[in-house]
Write a structure and sequence with these properties.
CATH topology: Porin
CATH architecture: Beta Barrel
Radius of gyration: 24 Å
Number of domains: 1
Order of helices and strands: HEHEEEEEEEEEEEHEEEEEEEE
Oligomer: single chain
Number of helices: 3
CATH class: Mainly Beta
Largest sheet: 14 strands, antiparallel, barrel
Strand order of the largest sheet: 2-3-4-5-6-7-8-11-12-14-15-18-19-20
Number of strands: 20
Structural class: mainly beta
């Protein structure tokens, strides 16, 4: 069983790296659509991740490494997600969808007071294809915006219980990937097209410090307070700006001519700092209610200037906050009469203020989530198949922008077992 899991992990890493996993036009901004820090059970609770979201403590938390105080088994996670999008701009409507592998991770206890984990996830995704048409002085112009690629994260955490109920942890991410953007300008009736393109490769380390305090209240109730700080980091960026012209013969490009080219192999892309604070109140193996706030300093974001790039020229980045409320409920975790009494039911709401404005219009988002955790395997090991659904909205149609409605589903497997521990036989 262990060799099967390890083989699947290696295969899935290759799959994640190769996949194209975004179709949102808003992925054009920054370094793509943010994807990291959200496993399936966390997604079912409005995306809350800074405090424990598993009723039995047997799901590794990579968002806040300190929130692994009760991890007592080796846990392997494999997850996938899919989203259907509905886009609206003026009178135009469009639908699109995508599916991707979203998480592969392995975590286990280290001694009596520590825990360690490693994983691989997509970090951001770039994927859009937009056509804008306009007319001035009886001349029709078409601009096609295209982008693809994404950043990936290989990460590891270590946490340590320092005192009763108090723990600290550190997570290190190594980020890498490639983003490609094109802006193609064509005039109606003219055979010549101009292509402004940018290809950027990114790599660098990111660090997150985590802490958590858990207090027992009475015999069965618990108060958890968690906090994390992700350090702002500079990713080394190797980019090429290229401007070309060409004509079409049928569907084939011809007469390709390079107008300008600029390269920089040692530029920097500045990612923002993130502060997170969350609290939850729970009853042992029964229910939990949690509240979380995350603050991102997106006004610090900087990347090498993309010449003639519409998305970069008309965008202003700003600090933003994400608020979430969520919880879970297990009717009877020890029931032997009803399987569904042992199922974990989850729900949540979230709101995220705009991390950027486009032509002066803020692009914020909000949504609702539900989820279930279905016990699998042995009744006492906490293994689960988790499923979550999310419905949300992002952006608006003001200033010719796009309103995006989306329905997403995530499916994940948490398989728990005792590894690396000598069994005691009396």
């Amino acid at each position: 069983m262990k060799w099967i899991i390890c083989s699947l992990s290696l295969f899935s890493v290759v799959t994640i790296k190769a996949q194209s996993i975004s179709v949102s036009p808003y992925s054009a901004y920054g370094v793509g659509e943010q994807l990291f820090d959200n496993n399936t059970e966390q997604a079912g609770m409005g995306g809350i991740s800074t405090v424990p979201t598993n009723p039995f403590g047997q799901s590794a938390n990579f968002s806040n490494p300190a929130a692994n105080q009760n991890l007592r088994m080796t846990t392997f996670n494999a997850s996938g997600s899919g989203t259907n999008y509905n886009f609206k701009s003026g009178t135009d409507k469009e639908n699109a969808g995508r599916f991707n592998v979203s998480n592969i991770s392995l975590a286990f206890p280290v001694g009596e007071k520590g825990s360690f984990g490693v994983g691989f996830q997509p970090y951001t995704a770039l994927g859009y294809d937009i056509m804008n048409t306009s007319e001035k002085n009886n001349i029709k112009q078409a601009v096609q915006l295209k982008g693809n690629g994404g950043l990936n994260s290989i990460h590891a955490f270590y946490s340590r219980n320092l005192a009763k109920g108090f723990s600290l942890g550190l997570r290190v991410n190594y980020l890498f990937g490639e983003l490609t953007r094109h802006e193609v300008l064509a005039i109606d009736g003219a055979s010549l097209a101009v292509d402004y393109s940018n290809k950027s490769n990114y790599r660098g380390a990111q660090f997150t410090l985590g802490s958590m305090y858990a207090k027992k209240i009475g015999k069965v109730h618990n108060l958890n307070i968690g906090a994390t700080y992700t350090v702002g980091t500079n990713l080394r960026t190797d980019y090429t700006d290229l401007t070309t012209t060409y004509t079409y013969v049928g569907t084939t490009q011809s007469s390709l001519d390079t107008i300008s080219i600029a390269r920089n192999s040692n530029a920097k892309t500045k990612l923002p700092q993130t502060f997170a604070l969350a609290t939850s109140y729970s009853k042992d193996n029964s229910w939990s209610l949690a509240l979380e706030a995350k603050y991102n300093t997106w006004s610090d974001f900087k990347q090498p200037f993309l010449n003639n790039n519409t998305a970069a020229l008309n965008t202003k980045y700003k600090n933003n906050i994400r608020l979430a409320l969520g919880g879970y409920w297990v009717p009877d975790f020890n029931s032997y009469k009803s399987y569904f009494d042992r199922v974990t039911y989850r729900g949540g709401l979230y709101y995220q203020s705009a991390q950027y404005s486009i032509y002066g219009t803020d692009v914020d988002s909000y949504g609702a989530t539900v989820g279930i955790g279905l016990p699998i395997g042995k009744q006492n090991d906490g293994s689960m198949m988790n499923i979550s659904l999310e419905y949300g909205q992002k952006g608006k149609t003001t200033n010719n922008l796009i309103k995006e409605n989306y329905l997403g589903v995530k499916v994940g497997f948490d398989i728990n077992d005792i590894w690396f521990r000598k069994r005691v036989i009396d």
